[in-house]
Write a structure and sequence with these properties.
The chain has four domains: about 120 residues, Immunoglobulin-like (Sandwich); about 100 residues, no CATH class; about 90 residues; about 140 residues, Glutaredoxin. Helix 12 runs antiparallel to helix 13 and helix 12 runs parallel beside helix 15. The protein is about 45% helix and about 20% strand. The protein is built from 20 helices and 15 strands. The model has no long low-confidence stretch (mean pLDDT about 95). The radius of gyration is 26 Å and the shape is globular. The strands form five sheets. The chain has a four-stranded mixed sheet. A four-stranded mixed sheet has the order 14-13-12-15. It has a three-stranded mixed sheet with strand order 5-6-8. One of its GO terms (molecular function) is oxidoreductase activity. Keywords: Signal.
Length: about 475
């Protein structure tokens, strides 16, 4: 296909989408949220766990906000605000007035807890009859029926109790709803059945075959999909007859793996492609297979040139994810204001190695790690530049700590947590070592008190020796 023809097709597709997509309007008035900003995200794909911004509600001083989204199909979105994770399934062309709960922000303990999980709920609307309202009522009824027969369901694995649960759902929702709702109900019931009866993935995996790609971004799909195919490549390779799976991966035989998926899970076509991408993604992180083989298969035209747009997008996202911040890759530059208000970028200089320390100065453990940077500076000042990227906390506490402790580092304050999110930092401290070209040196750089001195010192001696030897040749 020539470049001009490809561009023409893309323009036609874009025009078609623009003409067929309709605006969904999202509104909310709640004084508790005055001057707050709620960003709603959608899943970038069902595999990579990357999100993309769907829309943002920016509340004025009176607590009123409005946003719009162009879509030609129902789209699932979610937002984490305070202690909540609000979920919203948007319908094309609708105006939705959200009914948010009183805003309750995270406590100090919640903010410091890396395992904190927000309270998930489906957001009600003022109308009360929107798709989201129906899903919310369904979830409430499902929880009610599950709690009522909990022992019979999960301990006795009673088929009678499960049939009673399904009958209760059908009685509460006798009329057929929109396709999105019916699929949500079907997948949620399948998830509960799989949990109750300890079903193997192949016992119910065929349920995915008929699901259209437009629903792959929905929460109910992603939850069941993750549960069904999580780590299945590793599991299958270790099972009886698994040598064939391992051999197929090692030889980069995509067709053999698709045949395996068709036989075991009764899935073919685009859905089988999605399952294989999921298995390759999980197999990469298991470190049980050839990294090169998995990377090559993900980059294969079977995925990158796939007829399915969703498959191409997922392959692109997975390919980018598995090389992000790996050894030898170029790390994103961090440009933030330092403690004195001056704009600083971590790639401003190419003279030294760069040690990035993401920290929360309000935690004692981070304080002790930051204090030890003085020792590291004494040892490696000639070759190492230290950057501390701080989670945005009470400014007075930040100033007080660094006034009392003369930390020999460039102190950057991540006021919007942008660098923390970009580097996918989940707990503090977390560290990265970069070379002069801003490339990652270690897959796992140690924290100051956890052995970085030994890790970097040993590596540095060898690196400088090799460089000197190469220069003398």
């Amino acid at each position: 296909m020539t470049n001009s023809l490809r561009v023409f097709i893309i323009l036609i597709c874009s025009l078609y989408f623009a003409l067929n997509a309709t605006a969904t309007t999202i509104r909310c008035t709640n004084a508790d949220y005055a001057n707050e900003k709620l960003t709603f995200y959608a899943f970038a794909d069902p595999i990579s766990n990357n999100n993309k911004v769907a829309f943002t509600l920016t509340f004025n001083s009176e607590g009123t906000s409005e946003a719009s989204l162009q879509t030609d199909a129902p789209v699932f979105t979610f937002s984490e605000f305070g202690i909540y994770r609000g979920m919203l399934l948007l319908e094309p062309g609708k105006t939705i007035d959200l009914k948010l709960p009183p805003l309750k922000k995270k406590s100090f303990a919640d903010q410091k807890n890396p395992y904190f999980q927000p309270i998930s709920f489906w957001i009600y609307t003022n109308n009360g009859e929107m798709l989201n309202d129906k899903i919310s009522r369904f979830e409430q009824k499902l929880n009610e029926l599950t709690d009522k027969d909990f022992n019979a369901l999960y301990f006795q694995q009673s088929e009678t109790a499960f049939n009673r649960l399904k009958a209760g759902i059908n009685e509460a929702f006798p009329e057929k709803g929109p396709e999105s709702f019916e699929l949500h109900k079907k997948l949620r019931l399948q998830l509960i059945e799989a949990d109750i009866f300890r079903m193997s993935p192949e016992d119910y995996s065929a349920i995915f075959q008929s699901i259209s790609p437009e629903f792959w971004g929905h929460q109910s799909f992603k939850t069941l999909f993750d549960k069904t195919f999580d780590k299945q490549l590793s599991f299958s390779a270790k099972a009886i007859g698994g040598a064939k799976v391992s051999a197929a991966v090692a030889s980069e035989n995509i067709n053999a793996l698709l045949d395996f998926i068709a036989e075991k899970y009764e899935l073919t076509g685009t859905m089988a492609d999605l399952v294989l991408l999921k298995m390759l993604h999980d197999g990469f992180y298991s470190k049980e297979f050839s990294v090169k083989a998995i990377k090559n298969m993900i980059a294969n035209k079977h995925f990158t040139g796939n007829r399915g747009t969703k498959i191409r997008e997922a392959a692109k996202n997975v390919a980018a994810k598995i090389v992000f911040l790996e050894k030898g890759s170029e790390a994103p530059a961090i440009c933030l204001s330092d403690i004195n208000g001056n704009k600083v970028c971590t790639n401003d200089s190419q003279e030294k190695f760069k040690y990035l320390v993401f920290a929360d100065v309000e935690t004692v453990i981070c304080q002790e790690h930051l204090k030890y940077l003085s020792r590291l500076n004494e040892l490696f000042n000639k070759n190492l530049e230290i950057f501390v990227v701080l989670r945005n906390t009470d400014r007075a506490g930040i100033d007080r700590f660094f006034d009392e402790n003369k930390v020999p580092a460039t102190i950057l304050i991540d006021t919007e947590n942008e660098a923390i999110e970009e580097y996918k930092v989940r707990s503090f401290p977390q560290c990265f070592l970069l070379n002069e070209k801003h490339q990652v040196v270690f897959d796992d750089a140690k924290a100051p008190l956890n052995g970085f001195e030994q890790q970097f010192g040993t590596w540095l001696r060898n690196e400088l020796f090799m460089r000197q030897r190469n220069q003398s040749r």
